[in-house]
């Protein structure tokens, strides 16, 4: 075994150990919506005390999964980056933190949710599939890119033209969806698409958790763009 292979083995073992603790998994899950949160809020999400939360957060920081922003006396924790969120999503972190059950809240999560800051779930996969099929998304060495016909269609569907015209400058990436086991659009392009749909009212955030709730108008307009939910 080479030295590099040996290092990878120990890195994977350490990452597995970080995720094996339910409290740490719950903290990571709470940060999957892309927001930064203080230690006290993460302690409540993990149902642990302040001292225990502090120890878990240090492990996650040392393991490279978290970043921290200091503002005055306060410290706000966030995922270390979009790549970490994609890895956690692919590893099905929510199933590690709590088993997925066919409850109404989980049904909403499976239908549409944020994966860090981009659209995931059945709706995110449907968008990726439809736009790849239409040639509106194409893959290059730099990742996924939106085509000009897609920009024109978005403008016709009600997107502000300056916003839509900037999208081809952004690159996306294929992100494996943990409930659908298919791809949705991640990276800067995925973040921009999701932010615009929230601004337009096509989607809104659920009061709690990561679920995104499509509006009737949003579903109608997405249908004109080839994106349909069963």
UniProtKB/TrEMBL annotation:
GO biological process, one term: response to cadmium ion
Keywords noted in UniProt: DNA-binding
Gene3D superfamilies (alphabetical): Winged helix-like DNA-binding domain superfamily/Winged helix DNA-binding domain
Residues of the HTH arsR-type domain: 4-99
InterPro entries: ArsR-like_HTH, HTH_ArsR_DNA-bd_dom, HTH_Metal-responsive_Reg, WH-like_DNA-bd_sf, WH_DNA-bd_sf
PROSITE patterns from the UniProt entry: HTH_ARSR_2
Molecular function in Gene Ontology: cadmium ion sensor activity; DNA binding; DNA-binding transcription factor activity; lead ion binding
Protein name in UniProt: DNA-binding transcriptional regulator, ArsR family
UniProt organism field: Rhodanobacter glycinis
Taxonomic lineage: Bacteria, Pseudomonadati, Pseudomonadota, Gammaproteobacteria, Lysobacterales
């Amino acid at each position: 075994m080479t030295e590099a292979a040996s290092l990878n083995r120990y890195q994977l073992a350490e990452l597995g150990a970080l995720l094996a603790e339910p409290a740490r998994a719950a903290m990571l899950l709470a940060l999957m919506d892309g927001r930064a949160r203080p230690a006290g809020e993460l302690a409540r999400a993990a149902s642990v005390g302040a001292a225990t939360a502090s120890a878990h957060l240090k492990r996650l920081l040392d393991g490279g999964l978290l970043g921290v922003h200091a503002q005055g006396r306060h410290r706000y924790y966030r995922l270390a980056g979009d790549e970490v969120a994609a890895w956690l999503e692919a590893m099905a972190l929510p199933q590690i933190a709590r088993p997925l059950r066919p409850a109404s809240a989980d049904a909403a999560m499976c239908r549409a949710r944020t994966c860090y800051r981009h659209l995931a779930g059945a709706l995110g996969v449907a968008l990726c599939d439809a736009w790849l099929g239409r040639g509106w998304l194409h893959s290059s060495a730099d990742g996924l890119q939106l085509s000009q016909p897609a920009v024109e269609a978005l403008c016709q569907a009600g997107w502000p033209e300056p916003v839509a015209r900037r999208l081809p400058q952004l690159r996306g990436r294929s992100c494996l969806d943990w409930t659908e086991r298919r791809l949705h659009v991640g990276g800067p392009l995925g973040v921009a698409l999701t932010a615009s749909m929230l601004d337009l009212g096509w989607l809104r955030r659920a009061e709690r958790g990561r679920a995104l709730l499509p509006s009737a108008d949003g579903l109608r307009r997405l249908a004109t763009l080839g994106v349909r939910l069963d």
